[in-house]
Amino acid sequence: MSVELLAEHTAQRFAKFFGHPPCWLAAAPGRVNLIGEHTDYNDGFVLPMAIDRCTVIAAEPNAARQITLHNNTTGETATINLRTRVGKGKPAWANYVRGVIAGFQQRKLKIAGFNAVIDSNVPIGGGLSSSAALEVATATLLEAVTGQKLDPIEKAVLCQRAEHKFAGVPCGIMDQFTSVLARENHLLLLDCRLRTAQLVPVNDPSVAILIINTNVRHKLVDGKYARRRAQCETAARFLGLDALRDANMDLLIKSRNGLAPVVFRRARHVITENERTLKAARAFIASDWAALGRLMYASHSSLRDDYEVSCAELDAVVEIAKAIGFKGGVIGCRMTGAGFGGCAVSLIRTAAAMEVTRRMSEAYEKKNGVQPALFSSRPAAGAKILQALIAR
């Protein structure tokens, strides 16, 4: 479903729920990361793109000093009181919205009450940044509500802090940055320390990006994500560095005896993944698909063995991709997102897309007993207010 069609459906649901059409429609995309996993919170490099699946919020002002949110995905409705400083509450999904509202309040931006309906076709728990899409869609809507446009970097950081403080996930900047700043038909080579992005054009029609959802949902608030971030920080402190972005393999190997084996492996993944990400951007620009495929497979192996965030279902997808092989139309494949389930991403030959999709789906179902959800996506644009639908 296109952004425009999802927006139309969301507007219809708003009219059904509140009795008349909305004034605003805000949309923000999910993202898929081609390579560069668990490097963003280590001040490293990532190579994501926005996908053409998004979260849409339809809204209109109300006379009350409160916000009423209806989530079409969960069927739940949440109310947020604007007479006081916004804090955490229930239902849990609304904390992503509350965190963004709190960020606007901290900036002394006056938020009037409004009614809203939220809908999304970004898979939840699939590693495609459904939470960032909700945060950034909320911030984009609040820009329209308050009449105050934020600096794009400030907007991304505000949404990142909302996830830290209100959802308890100490994520890096990649997800929110991509949802805010993505460009159509481009990857972003993001330097997470400098918060700068180099646009990497995707203009070769002979290749396509295929996303494979294992339908195994991950949960990042159970401590696994935070534990790995803490292990990376431990390694950086021991090496005398601000972040693992500044480390190299020679320094790490020299310090090996002073690090716990698990901390050494975590650091090794980050160091080698940063190197792979920079090489992958160059390979993409040069259309060196064989090199890019090798880098994607190496990234998955590192995430599986050194960072230990893969799972049997993700490993199965990658093994199926390898079995189909370069000649069968698969250039490379790896898990994407934080891990512990979710999605894999594969670069494939466009001409072989239907056959690759069929073979992957059949082989995965045979091995795991469930069907995966597969879809392709072009690099999409970042968050926006859909201007044609602002005024009634």
Characterise the protein shown here.
The protein has helices at 3-18, 94-106, 130-146, 152-167, 174-181, 224-239, 249-254, 261-286, 289-305, 312-324, 353-368, and strands at residues 24-33, 45-46, 48-61, 66-71, 77-81, 114-120, 186-191, 196-201, 207-213, 330-336, 343-349, 373-376, 384-385. It folds into 2 domains: 3-36 and 49-198 and 382-389, Ribosomal Protein S5, domain 2; 202-376, 2-Layer Sandwich (Alpha-Beta Plaits). It is α+β, with helices and mostly antiparallel strands. Helix content is 42%, strand content 21%. It has 11 helices and 13 strands.
Order of helices and strands: HEEEEEHEHHHEEEHHHHHEEHEE
Using DSSP, what is the number of strands?
13
Structural class: alpha+beta
What CATH first level of the largest domain would be assigned?
Alpha Beta
- Average pLDDT taken over every residue: 94
The CATH topology name of the largest domain reads: Ribosomal Protein S5, domain 2
Oligomer: single chain
Biggest sheet: strands, sense, closure?
6 strands, mixed
Helical amount: 40-55%
Rg calculated over all Cα atoms? 21 Å
CATH architecture of the largest domain: 2-Layer Sandwich
What is the 3D form? globular
Cα distance, first to last residue?
Answer: 24 Å
Give the strand line-up of the largest sheet: 5-4-6-3-1-13
Low-pLDDT stretches are 388-392
